[in-house]
Amino acid sequence: MKRIGFVVNPVAGMGGRVGLKGTNGLANEARALGAEPVAPKRASEALSALRALPSASQIHWITCRGAMGSDHLGATGFPPESSEIATEPPSYTSADDTKEACRAFERLGVELIVFCGGDGTCRDVIDTVDRRIPIVGVPAGVKMHSGVFGIHPATVARILDAYVQGYLRVGDAEVLDVDEEAYRRGEWSVRLYGTAKTLVEPTLVQAGKMLFAEVQDDAMKDEIADHIQEITEREPDTLFLLGPGSTVEHIANRLVVGKTVLGVDAVLGGKLVGQDLNEARILALLDRYKSAKLIVSPIGSQGFILGRGNLQLSPEVIRRIGIPNVIVVATPSKLNATPVLRVDTGDPELDAAFAKKEYLFVIIGYRTSKLHPIHA
């Protein structure tokens, strides 16, 4: 039997759809804006997928009472005797409760910690256990740039299945520290927080975010911006939603509209009609303007175009826009270092619809596109 620690950050990811760009210290504000919990569903997706595999019976869980663990194990069919309770957290939890859980896991001899949250939760875990215990993350936060997360909750089940069978080795992964206050102001301030031990499976564990700062990229961004400008001028009645990222910001500069680097903004007829939008405001614009397109750029190396850092672009938003109206842009150097595009919208049917296309056109220059594989 493998002794695996399991902890869920119940408020992780709540700030995404309401446009808070993170939930650290803002859980109450997120609730006031109507945010709903994200982590419970993501935890259940991972556990349900694992429950269907034979190796599930070879895991003894060490977890927390209630929403931080045991509720999700019980709801997905793991019998009570397959787990033991390490901590009794309060109804409203904080980072201290995650750290207390990890200290208890270490005392009780866990061989691996599985946590459900984002980069902030990841930092709480390694602050407690450092590199003494390997960790794997179920992606459930707003920001997930560290290299310890499964590509999707269901892939975490496959990672654990391979681990229990002894197929995976333990290796190092980068944990990134994003300044959340600066992030909310639209500033990308990131540093290497540390390294963690994790399970090495390149096709199932995402790489850390890669940053690109090549001189020739600026010229290619100019070409991409020229191409998008032509499209917007040709379709003056179409609402263009501009996703986060420096490539899309470059496009906005060419359109002479103000852009929040890390937010979602809206342009119609060359004018800004919405800035730093949350899900509700995007849906209101889609009610008003019947024709809409979305411009996004993949996260370097990871390949995610949806589901990382842009949770405002919810499944309902994407369905309203339509997959054919999602425009992907990337410089050639960024795309060359990104083997596949990925989506993780939280809606399995929508993810499957993207994956069914197998390839998406990516605009890489002026009137120049490249077919690039997409996975879900």
Descriptive overview:
This protein is of the alpha/beta class and 376 residues long. It has 2 domains: 2-199; 215-375. The chain is built from 13 helices and 16 strands. It has helices at 27-32, 39-51, 70-75, 95-107, 119-129, 153-164, 180-184, 215-234, 246-254, 279-288, 315-321, 332-336, 348-357; strands at 2-8, 59-64, 83-87, 112-117, 135-139, 170-178, 190-199, 239-242, 265-268, 271-274, 292-296, 304-306, 326-329, 341-343, 359-365, 368-375. Helix 3 (70-75) links the parallel strand 2 and strand 3. The longest helix has 20 residues, at 215-234. It is elongated and about 65 Å long.
Please sum up the structure shown.
The chain has 376 residues and is α/β, with parallel strands linked by helices. It has helices at residues 27-32, 39-51, 70-75, 95-107, 119-129, 153-164, 180-184, 215-234, 246-254, 279-288, 315-321, 332-336, 348-357; strands at residues 2-8, 59-64, 83-87, 112-117, 135-139, 170-178, 190-199, 239-242, 265-268, 271-274, 292-296, 304-306, 326-329, 341-343, 359-365, 368-375.
**Backbone CA Rg:** 21 Å
First-to-last CA distance: 31 Å
Structural domain tally? 2
Q: Quick one: biggest sheet?
A: 9 strands, mixed
Alpha-beta classification: alpha/beta
> Spans of 5+ residues with little confidence (pLDDT < 50)?
211-215
DSSP strand content:
15-25%
Strand order of the largest sheet: 10-9-8-11-13-15-16-14-12
Helix content: 25-40%
Features:
single chain; 376 residues; alpha/beta; 2 domains
